């Protein structure tokens, strides 16, 4: 990348090089932990006992899109090329609605970034004007957006906001609306934030996560090795510097 830049723009100075390395570092950091945590979260909930129906629906969707075996009766891999060809960018991007709902629900229930970095407000604003929660923020002040709280607002998500229900993202489902039947606020779900500072890698993360969920579901049946996690979830530490230990038994789906 650096040498291509040099060809186009001439020799890069030390400062430009440092900026570029910094940017690459930020993108790498922003991309890896978040995607890793969110896919792990999806699996963590999917393989809890009480979400067997969610699992079943996901398996049905995956098997109907990939109607072939990945293992023969002896457990040897067959159809390796067919699996990878079927899970190409277009197929993953355009299909697998339920896998996407499952991923979205994992981003909702435990967003990898529970709160935003500091955002500087550029003009005076008043939030919740005329209500008991009215809040004035002046231009120049910094705010953090509490994504985790948005995702657990009972007014938007109901009293069962701690439950893993992918149908919340299905426009045909009763869970799609907020309590009382009205549409949810567009920012009640904002795992990638939005506006000018929306996550640069949103689409990439969605495709990667969907591809991983689809391929893992096609190939294996998982079981939590830590039996406590079959019934009770364990949240990630807020800054995710210390990932929890999640151990599974992978059984080939023969
Ligand atoms: C599930 C996965 C991901 C989640 C939940 C996520 C979430 C977010 C959020 C909430 C922000 C805004 C942070 C803020 O302003 O405080 C952000 C920014 C960013 N994300 Fe992601 N992200 C994910 C994956 C990725 C990937 C795969 C990449 C790169 C390939 C990426 C690159 C970035 C970059 C560069 C920014 C800074 C954008 C800016 O400030 O202009 N992210 N992400």
What does this 3D model show about the protein?
This protein has 254 residues and is mainly alpha-helical. The chain has one domain (29-114, 149-252): Cytochrome p450 (Orthogonal Bundle), CATH 1.10.630.10. It has helices at residues 2-9, 14-46, 52-65, 80-86, 89-94, 97-109, 147-150, 154-157, 202-219; strands at 119-120, 125-127, 135-137, 142-143, 220-224, 248-252. A two-stranded antiparallel sheet has the order 1-4. Strands 2-3 form a two-stranded antiparallel ribbon. Strands 5-6 form a two-stranded antiparallel sheet. A hairpin with a 7-residue loop joins strand 2 (125-127) and strand 3. Helix 2 (14-46) packs parallel to helix 9 and helix 3 runs antiparallel to helix 6 (97-109). The site of protoporphyrin IX containing FE has 21 residues, from helix 2 and helix 9.
* Unreliably modeled segments: none
User: Which fold name corresponds to the CATH topology?
Assistant: Cytochrome p450
Order of helices and strands: HHHHHHEEEEHHHEE
- Termini separation (Å)? 44 Å
User: How many domains, in number, for the residues?
Assistant: 1
**Number of helical regions:** 9
Largest sheet: 2 strands, antiparallel
Based on DSSP secondary structure assignment, what is the total number of beta strands?
A: 6
Query: Which ligands are bound?
Result: protoporphyrin IX containing FE
Question: How much is the radius of gyration in Å?
Answer: 21 Å
The amount of helix comes to: 40-55%
CATH superfamily: Cytochrome P450
- The CATH class, by name, is Mainly Alpha
Shape: globular
Tell me which CATH architecture applies here.
Orthogonal Bundle
- Secondary structure class reads mainly alpha
Mean pLDDT: 91
**Biggest β-sheet: strands ordered side by side in the sheet:** 1-4
Give the strand content. Answer: 5-15%
